[in-house]
Specification:
Order of helices and strands: EHEHEHEHEHEHEHEEHEHHH
CATH architecture of the largest domain: 3-Layer(aba) Sandwich
Shape: elongated
Number of domains: 3
Largest sheet: 5 strands, parallel
Number of helices: 11
CATH topology of the largest domain: Cobalt-precorrin-4 Transmethylase, domain 1
C-alpha cells in the first residue's frame, strides 16, 4: 500500500506598494520604484492618463486601474481581493507619495486590517521638500495639507492652530493661495512664512517673508503652479499676551512688520492695504 503524501500549502498574499512618483522633475523617480512598477500585477493610479505618460517614459507596461477619491469605496475592496489572491499591487498618485492628503491612506487601512504587507517606496514629497529648504524650524512640525472647503470648518481649524508652537505645512492651489494667505495672516499675525511653488521643476521658486508680505508679492505677481506653504509656529515670547493688530497704531503696526524682516516699503504697503489707508498717509505717520 503506497503512502499518501499530504502537501500543506500556505497561501501567499500579495504586497501593497506605496510608490512615490515625481512632483515635477522625472529624475525624482527612484530605481527601486521603476523596478517595482514593472514587476507588480497591477498599478492603481489616481489618474490613469497621467500615470500612463510616466510609465511610457520609463518603458513600463504594467496594467493600470483607477483608484481615487470618487471610486475608493468600490475600488478599495476590489484591490484588497487582488492582494488576498496573491497579486502584488502598487499605488501611485499623480505626484508625490500616496497616502498624503489622498485616498491611499484608506487603502492602507483596509490592507492592514486584512493582514496584508504594506511596503513604502520612498521618494519625492512636496511637504518635506519645501520644509527642509524653507529656513524655518524643522525640529517640530505639523502637516495640515489642504484646508477644509467649508468656511466654518476652515476657520475652526485655523483657530486651533494659532497657539501651536510647531512649524505648519499647508498645500494650496494657485487659485486660492492669495485668499488663504490673507486668512492665515488675519489669524496668525505677522508670522514668518515661505511659499514654495513648482518644486523640482524649471521655475521652482521660494518666496520668503511673512504671511502679509508674501500675500503682497502675489497681489503683484500672478501665482502659478501648486503651492506648499510653510508657516512658523507661535514663538514662546509671544504666547504671554498678543495685542490684536487693530489695536496697534499705524506706526507700531509698520514697525512690527519690519521687525519680522519685511522691508519698510513693503510694510507700509501691507499696513495701508489692511487699514484701507492711502500709502502716503501711512508714510507721513512714520515721519511724524
Amino acid at each position: 500500500m503506497g503512502r499518501k503524501e499530504v502537501s500543506c500549502l500556505v497561501e501567499k498574499l500579495g504586497i501593497l506598494y506605496l510608490c512615490a512618483t515625481p512632483i515635477g522633475n522625472l529624475e525624482d523617480m527612484t530605481y527601486r520604484a521603476v523596478r517595482v512598477l514593472g514587476e507588480v500585477a497591477v498599478i492603481a493610479a489616481e489618474d490613469t492618463r497621467h500615470t500612463r505618460k510616466l510609465l511610457s517614459h520609463f518603458d513600463i507596461h504594467t496594467r493600470l486601474i483607477s483608484y481615487h477619491e470618487h471610486n475608493k469605496v468600490q475600488r478599495g475592496p476590489e484591490i484588497i481581493e487582488r492582494l488576498l489572491a496573491g497579486e502584488d499591487v502598487a499605488v501611485v498618485r499623480d505626484a508625490g507619495l500616496p497616502g498624503i492628503s489622498d485616498p491611499g491612506s484608506d487603502l492602507v487601512a483596509l490592507a492592514v486590517m486584512a493582514g496584508i504587507t504594506v511596503v513604502p517606496l520612498p521618494g519625492a514629497n512636496a511637504a518635506l521638500s519645501a520644509l527642509v529648504a524653507s529656513g524655518l524650524d524643522t525640529t517640530l512640525f505639523t502637516f495640515i495639507g489642504f484646508l477644509p472647503k467649508s468656511k466654518k470648518k476652515r476657520r475652526e481649524l485655523i483657530a486651533s492652530l494659532v497657539a501651536s508652537p510647531y512649524t505648519m505645512i499647508f498645500y494650496e492651489s494657485p487659485h486660492h493661495i492669495k485668499a488663504t494667505l490673507k486668512e492665515l495672516s488675519g489669524a496668525f499675525g505677522e508670522r514668518p512664512a515661505v511659499a514654495a511653488r513648482e518644486l523640482t521643476k524649471k521655475f521652482e521658486e521660494f518666496v520668503r517673508g511673512t504671511l502679509a508680505s508674501i500675500g503682497l508679492h502675489f497681489d503683484q505677481c500672478d501665482p502659478r503652479g501648486e503651492f506648499t506653504l510653510i508657516v512658523a509656529g507661535q514663538p514662546d515670547s509671544q504666547k504671554i499676551e498678543l495685542i490684536p493688530e487693530e489695536q496697534l497704531s499705524v506706526v507700531d503696526a509698520v514697525m512690527a512688520l519690519v521687525a519680522t524682516g519685511t522691508t519698510k516699503k513693503d510694510a507700509i504697503k501691507v499696513i495701508a492695504q489692511q487699514r484701507g489707508l492711502p500709502k502716503r498717509e501711512v508714510y507721513q505717520a512714520l515721519l511724524g
